[in-house]
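Feature request disguised as a bug report, sorry. It would help if multi-protein outputs had a clear separator. Right now it looks like this:
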Amino acid sequence: MNVAHHEIQLADGARDAYGPWMTGEEEVPVLIVGGSLVGLTTAMLLGHHGVPSLALERHAGTAIHPRAGHFQLRTLEILRQVGLDERVRAKSLEMYSATGGINAVESLAGRELGIYIKELNEGVEGFSPTVRVFINQDVLEPILRERALELGAALQNRVDVVALDQDGDGVVATLRDLEGGGERRVRARYVVAADGNRSRTRARLGIAMQGYGELSRSITIYFRADCSELIRDRNQGVIYVHNPQLRGFFRLDRSGGTGFLVINTVGEDVTTPEAIDVQTGLTDERARALLRAAIGADIPMEIVDVALWRAEAICAERLCEGRVFLAGDAAHVVPPNGGYGGNTGVQDAHNLAWKLAAVVRGEAGPALLDTYDAERRPLDELTVRQAYTRYATRVVPERGSDGVDPVVPDIELEIGTVVRSSAVIGDGDDDGTLHLDPAQTRGRPGTRAPHLTLPDGRSTLDLFGRDFVLVHGPAAHAPPGIAACRLDGEALAVYGIEAAGAVLVRPDGIVAWRAPRMYEPAAVRQALNTVLAR
């Protein structure tokens, strides 16, 4: 649904908490610049934690093109926390095969050149209560928007943020109505900049980007053509195309009649500057010829739109400036290979939302927010490098391997990453790695708490999401006032504890503290105070 200028959508339960909007005193705990995938996720998760926010978007509505479409295990686990995973999975099945993989072909009509991933969820059994899915961003965003409104967020479209002024108590944002041209001011305690890869908020803060830089001047052709017979025997998911005319990849819906083609390079020699500039001299006739070369058959086709964009692999040198935090493409820009862009942004939002909520509610000290950069930036930089690796090996392998990191298994990047900050209390078992096989994390501080199926059929992950939870053995007890879960038998080993041991899990599902063998109840309180910077 599009929102007319100066019309703010509020969930019924948000009106009391959001009284200043109704009286004209424009104040909000958290202002979100950007109302696309990451901005909507941030608003939704803040609402999940009981904190109202206002998300502003320059465009008239949610995404109009598929864009991000490969959503990983951790993203689905986060959506599960707010009750959306089954709905998203069902919507995915309307559009895409549940068993799609990632392969490479000469063309849709040509021979197969190789298989990168045989089946999207191969090897993930037992690690998570959910699965990876293909779903288009233009389909997912309205679902997120609806849930954000239900949880108390306010969302407004066709509004631009033209200035941000910080002081000791908050940030004053000057907003411009892009329909009527008027301006007004909103005061927020904190601001989340989720305004995309050309983030003007990041530019205003003077935060530079660093990394591999521009990889290609790419295009995406959105089209309709009946390719059903050409893909009938393909394991449909992401289909890379390698031929003398172009390099790129297809995403087609399960009917084979609608999809898009990303083109990263043109011509046979991908090492030339001309090869990586697909945009210069592009005409309708040229776009049609490239699409035909990728399909490999002269069939009726309709080009719906062509988007021009730059493939980059870069990360912000810092993720915050005072009370303003960068998330999503404002913080890191990656090529689409591997599907890391949107997923990494969702994980940014997940890490930041509970911390903002804890500080806004007075449950944590402001120093907790310093841990956002400390925890997320190393992982964002890792993701940039890994996305570049997949671009280099899948799209332009002829350029060689200089500067290309070895491939880290996808599942380690999804649910095996390790964070370090003052909100994680190490127990001496830290070798500095940023990723582990999730079968080996075993409740290690800084890792995602492992999934186990409980006797009532729920996952241990279903216990996390709002509060700190103490997971303990049968010979241990939780102090009063702390949510707890008791494990027995073989389940103890999965969390790396003995019968008298415990782990303290944060609201984002990260292990904050572990006592493998035994502990005093006071140690739990002390750990909680340390993590919350109290």
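(second protein starts here, but nothing in the output says so)
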Amino acid sequence: MPFVEGESLKERLKRDWRLPIPEAVRLACEIARALDYAHRSGVVHRDMKPGNVLLHDGHAMITDFGIARALNVAAADPNLTSAGTAIGTPAYMSPEQGMGEPSVDGRTDIYALACVLFEMLSGSAPYVGRNAQQVMMRHFVDPIPSVRPGRDDIPVSVDDAIRKALSKQPAGRFASAADFATALEAGHVNWTFTPDSGLPAIGTSVSASNSGPTAAINKPLLDRFVAVLPFENMSADPENEYFSDGITEDIITNLSKIQTLKVMSRTSTAPYKKHGKNVREIGRELGVSHVLEGSVRRAGNKVRVTAQLIDTETDHHLWAKTWDRELDDIFAVQSDVAECVAHCMRAKLSPTDASRLAKKPTENIEAYNLYLLGRHHYNKVTPDDFAKAVDYLKEAADLDPEFTTAIASLAEAYQYLGMGYWGVRPHDAHPEAFKLATKAAELDPNNGSAHASIDLYYDWYRFDFEKGGAELARAVELYPSGSMLRMYYAMHLCAVGKFDEAMVHRDIACQLDPSAMAIRGNATWVLYLARRMEQAIEECRNIRQIDPTSSYAAFSHGLVCAQGGDKREGIQAFRDAARLGEGITLYQVSLAYGLAAGGEHAEAAGLLDRLEKLSQKEFVWPMGMGMAYAHLGQEPKAMDWLEKAYDERVGYMLMITREPALDILRSSPRFQNLAQRIGPNTA
């Protein structure tokens, strides 16, 4: 090989962060033409990344074909790595290569090159995360990003070419690397920065990228995604941790009310508590444009709050402020923080937004303190903590009967219990939740949480999808950054057969809260209900790797594999869920179903006998019992349990005509009659 005197593209990007647009496009075209030659010669590179591109006399040279694959495997050099294994670099690896598919071709290199060009233009790869598994999952499930936010001087035609090359399916990409180069060249012109605006104008070449404080403040309107990191508890008493956590959550809630702002959910920012990472690194991992961080110090009736907003691309502090206030003035501080963040990020506040931010949730500071304790325990999601959360929220609502936020949170807690999974009868939870949510909505028609709980009552308890859909649409409108609201909406759309729309809200939910197992688990359910089994299985495997201790992730994995994949894999996932769930009957019932679907009928029957006896003492998930008996071939008993699930108003029954596990019963007249009672619009 000839000696190349120069540096790698990786070294260049490390030094300059991102490249001038004409240079980035030119280099990408040179790489594309080189790849096209390799592909026409029968070789796929499979590890296209900045570290494997050398810059020599200003031109790009591809190196390191160490894991290349010959397209004609029979004629391949035996020393070349074979296909069928997920070898490569996650930040640049196509979905099909990440799944270890044996049939990768030149289009996987086109995808990787699009990732490289994206990084040359934006300073970051299109998909980032805290670990390799999370990065790969984002390649599978996250929406295809645009490279123009943060740099709107990039021609739309270049952005379109990159997005086409990043298609999830190979068939959606360019047929050849040469075609990719042609598309890039078609939109390639020379740019320069005009001295007046700082924005690019068509003309001569550009020698430097637009960066620095002015560029950070003048980000385009489409790039307003903020993560609120857990505010540090600076109080002398460590028991005040719940207070600083509550302030963080309320600031997130206030920011989520702003229609033109996108806000990362709490569960995905919680792991960054006492993180020690720099803001650029956090921005890359979370995929956000800005980070808000701060601290809370409480002493008696005094509180000090500090906050600062940082641009994750430049590490530039856009705004910082300290408040020293009386404790009962904490709401004004929270509103002030939200308004300042909105102003700095150029997120326009509508009159409704401003009114909602200014509204004080309660005049009773003790009720607010109880509310924070309730949310603190609610977010731990254990049976004992959940019981404590309900008690604290009840106390808060009793102290201030017009404390809408506490009332809506209590309704949310009852709705959670009323799903029929956790040993609580839906009849004992949903009506109370509806009463509380209705009261909260009457007190504050703009409370999105209240509308969401009303939706769950109609969708999951009454099976009235028209009323439920209207309430949920209103909730999403009020809290566009509510990740769980988006997921509920996706599930609602699945129930009525609108799967394409469901995918949109599913993807947004995953982007807003990429670390939450409740979001990621339900995201696999949406794919499963839409019969996109291969993608659902891969996502399940990924979330299991991200959090091997999550019983919910294991449960979701089992549910998908029982019908869409290797049934032995499904059984093992259900066994993991039962083990990790520490006796929760939902997972025991699911294991019985998985065993029945997987052909382990004797073990399934024995477990069902034990669950039948248990059902005399406590509520067990009747829909799961029906699914299990159906796969044991006991149709009458299966229908008896499904009829009971209907009578008990078990929420997941809204999916009766979508659930693949029930395909085995579709020809049954009893099943068809039951489906009609739930709603003809689901048939």
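Even a blank line would do. Unrelated, but nice: The longest helix spans residues 21-40.
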